[in-house]
Amino acid sequence: xxxxxxxxxxxxxxxxxxxxxxxxxxxxxxxxxxxxxxxxxxxxxxxxxxxxxxxxxxxxxxxxxxxxxxxxxxxxxxxxxxxxxxxxxxxxxxxxxxxxxxxxxxxxxxxxxxxxxxxxxxxxxxxxxxxxxxxxxxxxxxxxxxxxxxxxxxxxxxxxxxxxxxxxxxxxxxxxxxxxxxxxxxxxxxxxxxxxxxxxxxxxxxxxxxxxxxxxxxxxxxxxxxxxxxxxxxxxxxxxxxxxxxxxxxxxxxxxxxxxxxxxxxxxxxxxxxxxxxxxxxxxxxxxxxxxxxxxxxxxxxxxxxxxxxxxxxxxxxxxxxxxxxxxxxxxxxxxx
Length: 337
Hints:
Layout: E1 2-3, H1 8-12, E2 19-24, H2 27-42, E3 46-53, H3 60-67, E4 76-82, H4 90-100, E5 107-113, H5 124-132, E6 134-138, H6 143-156, E7 160-161, H7 163-173, H8 177-190, E8 195-196, H9 198-208, H10 213-221, H11 225-237, H12 242-260, H13 265-271, H14 279-288, H15 291-308, H16 316-328
Parallel strand pairs: 1-6, 2-5, 2-6, 3-4, 4-5, 7-8
Helix pairs in contact: 4-5, 6-7, 7-8, 7-9, 8-9, 10-11, 10-12, 11-16, 12-15, 12-16, 15-16
């Protein structure tokens, strides 16, 4: 049975199913779907929770044996199993088939995973869960849907925002829903009154941190080496993690390589969820950097990662500075094709 989180309350009135599977790439949505299901189940007496992660020490047999046993302190429970991949292997499928042949009515199995693998829906395990349980697939929120989602979140936080403010915040978080929630929490704390405008968003975002990896990415893409290095040095002075900075820069370089390889850049912008407001800075970066240079920068990211892990010699901060200068198109750093 296919379900969405907003159906849980109505669905629960006819009785909960023995197993549910919440899956998707948007970790925030998957997390909130699990919370919503646990909340509905708690209202029906499922007030104990066991949490398991599928790793080398995990045993489906032992876990499902637990599903058939009752606690001394609670009569009903949820067994939450976090899958390592978006699929059920043969061992998992067999174990679940055996359990679901006669499931414990006082236990709910909740599977949590990333987006399903391309072949997952054809597996016996998936078909079994779909037949006797509920599958909740969470899709990415993008474009106009993201703007509406942000507007709804602001309203839930008792904040009123105009369209421009919602669009600006959507551009700022670039599809990262967790970042959007964090920005809305900042707005709740820092905004006077309950009205949010585009000016308010810009002020709060600017005031929340003097230096951020987002500032660094923007200045690098626009080709401003002086400002980019200033932000990089500021992040270093504030004790920012090298891995976080490298993650942000690698992400931008990878996007540039994908765009440089594209035969239809507008379609690629849409596929990569790069909104209209940010497209000009990527176009500007592409005017300075060829695909070959982008691949070279991507390899530079790999070497910096090795340095950060101690697998290769070098000064990480010096190399990050050189990487930033390369993407900025600085004549001392960029390699001609």
